[in-house]
Write a structure and sequence with these properties.
349 residues; oxidoreductase (chains A, B, C, D); EC 1.2.1.38 (chains A, B, C, D); 2 domains; alpha/beta; Rossmann fold; globular; homotetramer; seven-stranded mixed β-sheet; 13 helices; six-stranded parallel β-sheet; N-acetyl-gamma-glutamyl-phosphate reductase (chains A, B, C, D); 32% helix; Dihydrodipicolinate Reductase, domain 2
Chain lengths: 349, 349, 349, 349
């Protein structure tokens, strides 16, 4: 039996990638694509990759409750505070919702307001939502009606560091995450800073000390550590389309832990997790090896000279960092095999 | 029932892509990977994308006849004149062979010798081989034991121009193909000219007037036209990983044919061909819209001002231009659905 | 003695490049930078490369006549039909003008209207202007008050083909120019199609059969041939910042001309031209070898098999194709050494 | 009066860049180019950018003493332990030497041996050499006969952190440098890992915990701090040609120092240093803004939330990180204006 899904915010990169993944998912049919800017236009006018593959036109999805009667899962790939505004109890009664925006990620609405510069539109729903980092929250995701799909940087960062905190291995005030992302993370917006000539052949940090994903990472890691964590998170822009690499640093509590021991701790922590690949000795995380897939590669090392742990981890930001994880969440919520539609091996080069 | 396949030349880009595609093919199991340079090394040492996905090590495949007893299809992704040298009647008795090298593409061994600077190692087998351009030669491919998988440029060029010749629309001495390829076409060889800094931020033509794919294109188009064709083919190198765009020019015989009529002729010629997308008016072929897929996009236009036909066509050189078409050939030869394992929609960005 | 110059349209890529070149020109001082969108903002807010190098803020240049009293040369790097609108006889009395837009390139205002979709604002001035392709029009440029700086594609295309027409070597109806440009040619406009993720890892043709530079190329070549020429010009977009490569095809009239003879004809035609490098046998034009310089590299070959001439030529589109040639024109008009400020060797990689 | 220079190791990227810079230096003439692999070949066969610009062929420089009689300055752009092997007292009598390799950077030959896996060939000369980080060591460089040109990462890292240590602002055991470099840093060697398709569209860390530039950075910073410093240095590879961005972290000793105060400390420390641009509030270091120039841009911030200092700094690795600084050293040693030949503004895009 197939389920039907609707997608809001169809004109963006994450929706485009979600569509691509779902077209290969044997148990899912895309019922409709909502886009305010593309109403009645064939989807291949936005994304010519789907020419003759997906003969849908975008629709006006403002009558959401009525549209949701006919679908099992709603994906929101919309700007922040949009999903929180339009979701109603009626929608959630008829439909499971996976929100790829930031609306339901942060528990604390004041933190939300401080970072997204707007008042949260729906604190009631927020209280019912579940943070959809599949490997860490599977049990809560399974019965959830509303899942907040994690941010791209948080997915990579949290999975990089979770085993350290779960095993009490590091000084909590010593965490530094130096993250680098491909440009698709900036979305499909006609912004000067995202022009080819501005990004190509350059490298920069941005949102130094103030990126919105910082509180999301701190919230998840604090929950694992059962203590509040404050950390440094610095994102950078890489002249490539896809991929995130996060390089994380922390001070080791127990100097007897070496790289081999650390790798075993990681392999143990992620035992049975298909999408987490803890790399063997000598290998390092590189974005090319996960591109086009839902994998996260993690390479944990101890630097005995400085008594620091150095972790590199890589994901495809549009897949494990967005649409792939959304499908993984759907699979968990709908009782499908968790890797359904996500079996594709990474594509290189 | 699944078939088993072996792959020779596993360390190259085309083998890597073939492996990726075959891992998603429900009816195929990869039995072994042969590589002279990587004997006994895990395949993920060559291609870390397959870490924990494909736990095979490369083997020494010099005992080919014995190795081929256990497989149904052999793919050769080897340098030219290697496959022609090692293939034996016994191999072909037990196994269907799809050769991704140039060994069995050219009917004329003198042309082969002139362009590949070596004497053809096996003219007898050459006589039994079939040129595997699926859309044009399906009937001969079906019963074949030995299929020559077409070159990347020829696939894109021949499919671009075939309808013109089949319909006698152009002056035969007027064909110019100006083709552009991503850098994966150069293979995984440690050559100075293929270094990142030599290719990136540059654009060049190469093998001007003398590229090896010229006779292959001429041979196929001459067969369709039933007259010998001599044409200009100029390849260029694009600073990107994947993709070929061919821009073809020819003088129109009948000035009454306009772009709309021409498009209809193309749509008609490729009717029912799933992998050929003749683009609607206003659209143009772009490599990004076929990347990661087995599609070829073709946009035919008439320039009434100059009385020329201008065709742009795009493929993913590693898929429709190599490993995807090899799988398509396998599907035809083995009686599978022709699109098995090749259903992936193009991946953008 | 130094001259003073003003620049209109300072926020664009060509103005930015002009500023960079002029900062290295010993005989020029930049008096002011006009930009409607950046009035009173430090220029390094637009182009941080000039931080602490050029402490100018942009000005409102609407009082142009008064502003031009204090300068010797005015560069207009403005959108089309802007320069034609604002220029007055008074401005031209006090100031020499080099227009980098399309306003004064086409002799025929109907052709202008057809391609730029607007009525030419100043046919009177058009009649007094000179087409500033330095190597071909030096004598007229020298005394000119108003010079139309050629388009990027036309510079590369016209210099590629001029020797053929001057020597009556080809069939006039056989010219095809297949041109490829880096993305800076699209300008600094926040357009969806110019986003990094839309351009990167892709290759496309655009404006097929209808690009605005076609009549400019035809006009210049027709003048040399002393016969009207109609040709095919197809531009393509390359995922790189800078550079144009034009591959040109034409049918040879005299089959006795071979590549060596052709190269001599080119070397002869461009004898003494410092910025034109006719490449030796075996070399081909590549954009990397001219990047950052005012050179054009030209590699002419005869394909005896098809009786065609194949020329590749490369320029840096922002230098010889725009701001460098503008400075070259200024040097000619002001009596400076023609290479003043343009001596920089190409920068690789 | 012009000086004459010789260059060893002419076939590499740093030599190529050195040649480009020196061609624009009014007081320098390139006397000869030594290259073992290119003996008697025109230099434009290696670097076609110099076609018709530099009509030199490479020479066999094994008779170094005799060759050095005719030059004032010798640049060694050779692999490590080459310069240390060939230099003789006689060479140093007649010629000033600037070594761009690692041979004379590390004071301690055991550290050298540990990181370069070879015994230092000339400890005597090492004792006479000066570390050529111009802004910090100008006085010693001026009279030196043998200058060790700093590594690319060290130049960027040391200048990023020097003011902090000189002002005793941070905990010495808290320094983490997360550095990112364009691919030209890997040199012009036909290595698989440097192929376009391996680097493009990917991002990775390398030499985690063990990069050779670590002891060079520690040595320089320890000298400033007057205490031994151990730090974490992690280099990453960026899919672009040129540029280094270093993101440095350290724990602030005095929480009363805010970003404004910090910036003043930096501006003060680098007062009068033309090539160091301490960026204004709100600006961040980006490699595109220094490309093609000898500048280093530094943006120091305090993160009050974590009590950390975060510095981003960018250079062109081939210029300030190699050949530009070599020319700056030459200018200091020869009494030229320090910016001679290095005045070019950064080239964007």
């Amino acid at each position: 039996m197939m389920i039907k899904v609707g997608i809001l915010g169809a004109s963006g990169y994450t929706a485009n990638e979600l569509v691509r993944i779902l077209l290969g998912h044997k148990e899912v049919e895309i019922a409709w694509l909502g886009s305010q800017s593309q109403i009645d236009k064939p989807y291949h006018h936005s994304y010519q990759n789907f020419f003759q593959i997906l003969p849908l036109s975008c629709i006006d999805a403002s009558e959401l409750e009525s549209l949701c009667k006919h679908i099992d899962v709603l994906f929101c790939a919309t700007p922040h505070n949009f999903c929180a505004t339009i979701l109603t109890p009626k929608v959630l009664e008829s439909t499971k919702v996976i929100d790829l925006s930031a609306d339901f990620r942060l528990r604390d609405i004041e933190t939300f307001a401080a970072h997204y510069h707007t008042t949260h539109a729906n604190p009631t729903l927020l209280a019912q939502s579940v943070y959809g980092l599949c490997e860490l929250n599977r049990a809560q995701i399974k019965p959830a009606r509303l899942v907040a799909n994690p941010g791209c940087y948080p997915t990579c960062s949290i999975l990089s560091l979770a085993p350290l905190l779960a095993n009490n291995l590091i000084d909590l005030d010593s965490i530094i995450i130096d993250a680098k992302s491909g440009t698709s993370g900036a979305g499909r917006k006609a912004a000067l800073d995202s022009l080819f000539c501005e990004v190509n052949e350059s490298f920069k940090a941005y949102s130094i000390t103030s990126h919105r994903h910082t509180p999301e990472i701190e919230q998840a890691l604090s929950e694992i550590a059962k203590e509040p964590i404050t950390l440094s998170f610095t994102p950078h822009l890489v002249p490539m389309n896809r991929g995130i690499l996060a390089t994380s640093y922390a001070r080791l509590r127990d100097p007897k832990v070496d790289s081999t021991a650390l790798r075993h701790i990681y392999k143990d922590f992620y035992k049975g997790e298909y999408f987490v690949r803890v790399l063997d000795h000598g290998l390092s995380a590189q974005t090319r090896w996960v591109k086009g897939s839902n994998f996260i590669d993690i390479a944990p090392y101890v630097d005995t000279r400085t008594n620091r742990i150095i972790i590199t981890a890589s994901i495809d930001n549009l897949i494990k960092g967005a649409s792939g994880q959304a499908v993984q969440n759907m699979n968990i919520m709908c009782g499908f095999r968790e890797s359904s539609g996500l079996e594709a091996a990474p594509m290189f080069p």
